[in-house]
Amino acid sequence: MPFDISSISIPFASAGHGGSTTLWILGVLLAGIFFIPLIAKRVGLPVVVAEIMFGVALGDSGAQMIGNPAWLHQLAELGLVFLMFIAGLEIDFREILSRSRRDAVVALVIYVLSIGLALIAMVLLDFPIFLALIVSATGVGVVIPVLREVGHGSSRFGRLILLSSLISEFVTLLIVVVFKVVHKSGLSIELLSVVVVGVFFYIALTLLRALIWWFPERFRILFEAHDPSETGMRFSLFLLALFVGVAVAVGLEHIVGAFLAGITLGALFPNRQVLDTKFLAMGFGFLIPMFFIQVGLRFNIPDLTDWAILQPFLILLVVSYVVRGLASSTLLFVGFSPRQTVAGGLLVAAQLSLNIVAGTIALKEGIITQELYDSIILLAVVTSFLFPTMAKYLLLSSPVPGESESQADEDDLEQFAVWS
């Protein structure tokens, strides 16, 4: 008989309704959040995958220790908002614009070919068109650690793969937003909501940039290391709430506002290491794991024997590898070896956070079924472990002569690696 944590009572717990149950559930979750990275590192799993597996172990497919209380759902939603906010912070347009025009074109061609081939595959297979976004997206948090580990962090190969992954992440989220609006309302005036948010983003960015130019001393306090009032955090959270509020007010997903708020903060204040540390601690130390644990809670292991889930998963796995492999063959024409080309295809085919976020939005909007959603989660888990492992094996035997990582490059990649 499964253990039900709600049957335990604590005399000194809150006297309010469900107080003792809430404390026990929160305690179990916090214990998991602490131990998961330690265990994941030893077994070589991405932390996100381990968090999903922890949720599965606690949910109906495992020990059935907790259900899915409302407060946990709210924490998970807040974790999703923080995840997309930090994703926006990590989009470094200076990094993208500093690349040579040739490298930028190659990275863009890889993504365009990926989305084009994925669309053709979905049409031929009679799958929802939305799945083309899932197949062509890349888990940046999986790519960065592998590139660093095999010494390709600052090589031309590594930078091309990283740039292609960043383009994939940014464009995929924008397309998901537009796709959701079109699916819900068609080509109607509701599409103006995307324009409204875009105009607000531009006005806010321009206005804040002007204020920083005229009053630099006032904004310098935002990034002081020892500010007892944490003014920088307060300002950033206000900016996050403002953008999320505008997005929701015009009928868009809250994550759109969160993503744009992160881009705004990152573009205005490129040197914000102190503030970044605090956000990463709050996000990856508590809120974001709650989102991925809840994803695991909703995942039903017995359903894996259901062909309605296994068939789409296997098809998407093959399509993902073939599509990204064919798109990455572009690398052959710009001087890279076949081994590096195959490894590049495997890396950009690895999926993780963004795919789960996109799948969650699609399920909520009725674009995909629960079975397809389970297939997407399984695809993210498998590709985030299998493809990078294969790519690592190929890259370790194909070093790039004459290129080494500078300390600045290491620092840049360390910032991106928080996604892992």
Q: Provide the gyration radius in Å.
A: 22 Å
Overall pLDDT metric: 76
Number of contiguous helices: 18
Structural class: mainly alpha
Note the overall shape.
Answer: globular
Tell me the span between the first and last alpha carbons.
36 Å
Bin the strand percentage: under 5%
The poorly predicted ranges are 1-17, 401-420
Structure commentary:
- This protein is an all-alpha fold and 420 residues long.
- It is 72% helix and 0% strand.
- The protein contains 18 helices and no strands.
- It is globular.
- It starts with 18 loop residues before the first helix and ends with a helix.
- 44% of the residues are buried.
- The N terminus and C terminus are likely disordered.
Secondary structure blueprint with pairings:
Blueprint lengths: L18 H25 L3 H12 L11 H21 L2 H5 L3 H25 L5 H6 L3 H10 L6 H30 L6 H23 L1 H5 L10 H19 L4 H15 L4 H25 L9 H22 L9 H12 L3 H12 L5 H27 L10 H10 L4
Helix pairs in contact: 1-2, 1-13, 2-13, 3-12, 3-13, 5-8, 5-14, 7-8, 7-17, 7-18, 8-15, 8-16, 9-12, 11-12, 14-15, 14-17, 15-17, 16-17
Q: Would you kindly provide a brief summary of this structure?
A:
The chain is built from 18 helices and no strands.
What are its keywords?
single chain, 420 residues, mainly alpha, 0% strand, disordered N terminus
